[in-house]
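Re: weekly structure request thread

Next one in the queue (295 aa):
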Amino acid sequence: MSDNQNLLAEQRRALILDEVRRHGGARVNELTRKLNVSDMTVRRDLDALARQGVIEKVHGGAVPVTDARTHEPGFEAKSALEPGAKEDIARVAAAMVAPGSAIALSGGTTTYAVARRLLEVPGLTVVTNSVRVADVFHTAQGAEPGGEPRPGSATVVLTGGVRTPSDALVGPVADQAIGSLHYDVLFLGVHGVSVEAGLSTPNLAEAETNRRLIRSARRVVVVADHTKWGTVALSSFGRLEDVDTLVTDAGVSEEVRAEMAERLPGLVVAGRESAAGGGFRSGPEAGHEDRSAGA
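Done, posted below.
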């Protein structure tokens, strides 16, 4: 059977994902018949969807992932989700950082994108519990000929801790290290944001580490693409009132955008329409109180 050239790979995989979710699973032979593609093509598509963390492969087909409240995809799987939105968010978030600032970056693929945008900001002190974020800065430090650190390169403080599937370091060691530090702004990645549950994650230990990150920050900036709004994971670690600014992407609907603006002190929507002006903004960009006092 020849492959159906009328469907792009992304379109075909979206159809497969919809089939798996609607029916609680799908067999390879059923998908080849419905899509008019080869067995090999379907298996490649299932491999790609499994890497994204949205399905689980089983003998002869695939089933949906376990409950999103408790399922935590790995870093590579999450990197494949909404890459364009994450770059838009990272561009706007990085523009909020002044040279010489002390900042923190939590674990996550969106904060990783922010880190790459911050390499040209001189004199930063960066606190992070993300192995991937630390690697971004450490690699850049040796970019000069002879392996010498670049002038003005960042000073990186990497917490210890137990490594999660998304390459964040969490647990008592990380919590203790973060609790003794104070920084100007925290860029915080989340698994979900909702009115009812606030900020949430599937990982209980990561929830506590994120609480410590929030308490040590003077200002909290959540970086989350449009798919995170309305998602509720197992453990809440912050309220919407704890967020000073939410940076999201242009994929949010007008209805959700209005709800975000009503609930959050500051909202920045990054996207193609914001290339000249920095994005739709609502509310103050700076926060209210200094959370680092007494942390």
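The longest helix spans residues 9-23. Residues 104 and 264 are 21 Å apart (CA to CA).
Next request, please.
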